[in-house]
Amino acid sequence: MAALPLYRLVLLGCLLGGGSSVAAIDPTPPRLLLHDFERPTSPVPGTIASAWSADPEQPAGRIVTQMQAAPAPRSGRALHLAYRFAPGADDAIGWQLRLPDLDASAYDHLELWIRGDRQAGFAPALQLEFKQTLAGAPPGLLRRGSTLIEGISTDWQRVQVPLRRMSGIEDWRHLRQFALVLHPRRSTIDAGAYWLDDIALVKTGQPGPSIYDRVNTPRKDALGATLGGQDALQVYIRSRLGGAWPQRLTVPAAELPNTNQAFLERLARDTWRGLVTFSDREHGLPLDTVRFTDSGDVQRAWVGDYTNVTNIGLYLIDIIAARELGLIDAAEAQQRLDQTLHTLERLETWRGFFFNYYDTTTLERSSHFVSFVDSAWLSAGLIVVRNALPELAARCTRLIERENYGVFYDPVEQLMMHGYYVHLPQRAEFNYGLLYSEARLGSLIAIGKGQVPEEHWYRMARTFPRRFEWQSQSPKDRVLKRINGYRFAGGYYIWRGLKYVPSWGGSAFEALMPLLVLDESRYAPYSLGQNARAHVALQRRFALEQLGYPVWGLSPSSRPGGGYGEFGARVLGVRGYDGGAVTPHAAALALLVDPPAAIANLRRLTERYPLYGEFGFYDAVDPKNGQVAYNYLALDQSMILIALANHLRAGAIQRYFAADPILQAVLPRLGAEHFFPDAKPDAYGQR
Predict the structure, then answer these.
(1) Where do the CATH 1.50.10.140 domains begin and end in the chain?
(2) Cα dihedral angle (145, 149, 154, 158), rounded to 10 degrees?
(3) What residues contact residue 394 under an 8 Å CB cut-off, 6+ apart?
(4) Top-level CATH class of 11-202?
(5) Which of 517, 485, 516 is nearest to 662 (CA)?
(6) Out of 90, 183, 212, 561, which residue is the most buried by the measure of CB atoms under 10 Å away?
(7) SS3 of 191-220
(8) Distances (CA, A) of 306 to 259, 280, 357, 566, 623
(9) Left, alpha or beta for 130 (phi > 0: left; psi -120 to 50: alpha)?
């Protein structure tokens, strides 16, 4: 599928001459000229112009620039930028202005003049980007805000780009680089040239829409006004819940069963009761968050009547899990699934995809964003249901088939983007560049549906190049491999003698969430399966040995004391999140890899901390002081229940998922890759 433009080129001036008009602009806004090419140096002191290459060690081509008399009808001088890609080039080259920690917060648009060189030829599209320093990050790790301009022709055009469209940057201070990026997969020719002039930052007073814009929810606003405010609204939300409110905050460890099997069965039953209770009774949607306090009074709580599409996808699987565990019968499972599917069929969508958040009371969407990874988890839920309950297969199939994951695919980077902002409209700035993240499941679904090329799987990095000095360690054995006909770089990290392919943050969520539906040890035993064992072993060792915790399980979760945080075993990540709270869902995910260690850890959590309530585990605990985050998050509770169902019922959920034709199209291809060719399957001991 062809790439969707990030935004349509804004042509404020078209062909100059021949009677063509130029849109009027305010001649007096503040304007910061980055370069006019009338002289070699920029008007901004400390700004340096140069060519650049994404890989300085092996440049993908050559850039040659000259300041020359500008082609008519412009006067003065302009920059002539010629490029030539090296044979077989696979990376970007470009031209940059290195900026002196520039503050652009007073401006709202980037402006420049551009035309293609008729004689040399040119690609009609190129990428513009700014980069800025990140607080607390190494110098080489910069934040990027970029956009694509299209429709470049042989006529001079003035382009104005709203800075807000470069959504990777929120605070426009501390800019270190402006660049034009040329990529061989965006160009149909190997060599070409452009003319550039008058690159400036301007203030128009019309900054345009932002990724932070609120979605109007008139029905919810009217409901709140009718009821008389937030307190009354909370009472109303509770009246719609699917079960009885808990009577006590915590359950003593002494009340929990002594045997492991009975303990896990009890945990599954309590967790399921909580998922039912904290769902909307009329719409069959799980509520994202319920927050209690540590006062001991269970009536002092806040209920968030909103949900995310991952929550919905996992809730569909929760219902199948509850049926497999004998917590509900087949008739109740079908009734609950029928209700949730009916709600899904009524929700507002974009190109068949669901928005990232919805109000569970009014069903209004509350997000402009369509998320790739969250959409994938909803698809995963529908896939499980259509294989577990044939009576609902046709309805699930209709929802699955109307989604084309090619909309998230960047054919230049050959990676999946984080998502799409429908109101801008443009893709999100960032992509999923690492293989070992929770998003890998979405890549398999997209490939299995035939909407993304198989090559994408091998474009995701196992490790980053050694020249990326900001990563937590330099990869070992990062050599080229050839698997299933595709060439890519491998590599791994080592910590305390154990090899592993890193995630970004070193969290259990990134490493293990796909195992909820995919038995990676079976289908990719020497790559993903072996890596999961490494991550669980090192999660445990890092928490117990490095941090000195008595328990383990580092993953994004609630912060005891308030808020939400990203936690991980730093050594397991390319960058690595800080250690902090321990969350039970991380230990539950480990059931899919190392059951004895996971069960012992879950037991230890109940024995050491007041972390267990009527609906199972609360979200997190700080092992340093014992403070508990008395929250129930639908996402984390669902991960616990589904992991338990797989462990207690011989991988039931995984088997339903793997039986689907979408997965059957890709699973046979996974087994060929070996992350660690010299390692044995049992290299990561269970104890």
Answers:
(1) 221-670
(2) -70
(3) none
(4) mainly beta
(5) 517
(6) 183
(7) EEEEEEEEEEEECCCCCCCCCCCCCCCHHH
(8) 37, 10, 7, 21, 30
(9) beta
Angle between helices 260-277 and 309-324 (to 10 degrees): 130
Q: Which amino acid is at 455?
A: E
- What residue type is 340 in one-letter code? T
Would you say 615 and 632 are in contact if contact means Cβ atoms under 8 Å apart? yes
Q: What are phi and psi of 250, to 5 degrees?
A: -130, 155
Distance between CA atoms of residues 291 and 302, nearest Å: 5
Helices 595-608 + 528-541 axis angle, to 10:
30
Give the C-alpha distances (Å, rounded to integers) separating 465 from 188, 462, 475, 569, 589. Answer: 27, 10, 8, 21, 30
| Burial grade of 613 (CB within 10 A; 0-12, 13-18, 19 or more) | buried
CA-based nearest residue to 578, from 533, 544, 547: 547
DSSP-derived secondary structure for 89-103: --S-EEEEEEEEEE-
Strand order in the sheet with 175-182: 48-53, 93-102, 175-182, 126-133, 142-149
Q: What's the predicted TM-score (pTM) here?
A: 0.93
* Residue 136, pLDDT score: 80
Quote the tokens at residue 562.
């308030």
Fill in the DSSP letter of residue 496: T
Domain 221-670 in CATH 1.10.357.10? The answer is no
Check residue 340 and give its pLDDT: 99
pLDDT score, position 13: 33
DSSP string, 343-356: HHTTS-EETTEEPS
Taking alpha carbons only, the member of 129, 125, 201 closest to residue 165 is 129
Q: Which ranges of the chain have pLDDT less than 70?
A: 1-29, 679-687
Residue 339: alpha-carbon gap to chain centroid: 29
279 strand-pairing partners: 286
| pLDDT 10s digits, 579-608 | 999 999 999 999 999 999 999 999 999 999
User: Closest by alpha carbon to 558, among 327, 155, 288?
Assistant: 288
Res 655: pLDDT: 99
Residue extent(s) of CATH 2.60.120.260 domains in the chain = 11-202
User: What 3-state class would DSSP assign to 481?
Assistant: strand
Q: For 554-565, give the DSSP string.
A: --SEEPTTSSEE
The sign of the dihedral angle between the CA atoms of 72, 74, 80, 83 is negative
Q: 115 pairs with which residues across the strands?
A: 195
- Which string of b and e fits 521-536 if b means at least 16 CB within 10 Å? bebbbbbbbbbbbbbb
Closest CA to 402 of 357, 455, 347: 347
Distances (CA, A) of 54 to 58, 60, 149, 155, 590: 9, 8, 20, 29, 38
The tens digit of pLDDT for each residue in 171-230 reads 999 999 999 999 999 999 999 999 999 999 999 999 999 999 999 999 999 999 999 999
Q: Which token pair is 309?
A: 């599409």
pLDDT for 9: 36
| Single-letter amino acid code for the residue at 366 | S
